[in-house]
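A reminder from the course coordinator: this example appears on the midterm review sheet, so study it carefully.

Given structure:
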């Protein structure tokens, strides 16, 4: 029996996708790990990283978007994390669940080691270092809401729309290595984009498509011990990052330019 860890970010719709995986694989074979970004430690680590990468002006542009996000994003998940989590916990009362604030912490390493995982699935968790992603026996795979190798990094589908590259909006399941979404590719799929979409709609659609593909691969993994063959990622394309208010306004204009 192969043990599978599922690492997710703290969003109700990601917990919905974890639910599908647990149902398909079996709760007795899974371990859920929640990366809680809201803690001060996670916020501090992220703030330092963004200032180093984007500079003060770029970070201010991102903050401006977040301050207006509730008005700009027309589609939101109105469910609270607590109500979705409580329902999930009632459904799987014996499923091991852990919450961490740093995916590369000693706490995370201890969880992975004690769970004796064969494979870790990352869906919206943080960027992992080798000491983390190599800890499970067969490493870690990532559900990336973007089409690798063309759009790697954070918010990949955002940037595909931003560049008017609608045919390269999609999702990738790949092995995790020390690069940014640069590990060998296992599965890919494109997804449609519509004029009335929001970023959340596109992101959720990508994860839903990715998890549908992933479940088939995990069922195969349980029976044979092997995942589908992976092919090397051509990482000559740049990895993207976070966006700000000015980027988001252009993203919206690209969506509006789509034909009905």
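Designed residues:
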């Amino acid at each position: 029996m192969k043990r599978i860890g599922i690492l997710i970010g703290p969003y109700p719709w990601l917990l919905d996708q974890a639910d599908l995986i647990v149902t398909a694989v079996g709760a007795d074979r899974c371990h859920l790990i929640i990366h809680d970004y809201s803690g001060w430690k996670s916020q501090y680590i992220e703030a330092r990283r963004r200032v180093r990468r984007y500079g003060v002006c770029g970070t201010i542009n991102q903050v401006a978007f977040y301050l207006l996000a509730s008005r700009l994003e027309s589609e939101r998940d109105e469910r609270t994390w607590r109500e979705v989590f409580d329902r999930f916990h009632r459904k799987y009362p014996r499923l091991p669940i852990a919450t961490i604030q740093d995916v590369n912490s000693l706490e995370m390493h201890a969880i992975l080691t004690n769970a004796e995982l064969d494979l870790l699935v990352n869906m919206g968790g943080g960027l992992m270092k080798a000491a983390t992603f190599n800890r499970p026996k067969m490493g870690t795979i990532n559900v990336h809401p973007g089409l690798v190798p063309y759009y790697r990094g954070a918010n990949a589908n955002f940037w595909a729309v931003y560049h008017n590259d609608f045919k390269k909006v999609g999702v990738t399941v790949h092995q995790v290595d020390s690069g940014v979404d640069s590990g060998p590719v296992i599965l890919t799929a494109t997804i449609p984009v519509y004029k009335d979409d929001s970023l959340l709609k596109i992101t959720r659609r990508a994860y839903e498509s990715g998890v549908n593909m992933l479940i088939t691969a995990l069922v195969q993994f349980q029976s044979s011990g092997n995942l589908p063959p992976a092919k090397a990622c051509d990482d000559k394309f740049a990895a993207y990052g976070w966006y700000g208010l000015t980027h988001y306004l252009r993203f919206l204009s690209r969506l509006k330019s789509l034909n009905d």
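The radius of gyration is 18 Å. The mean pLDDT is 89.
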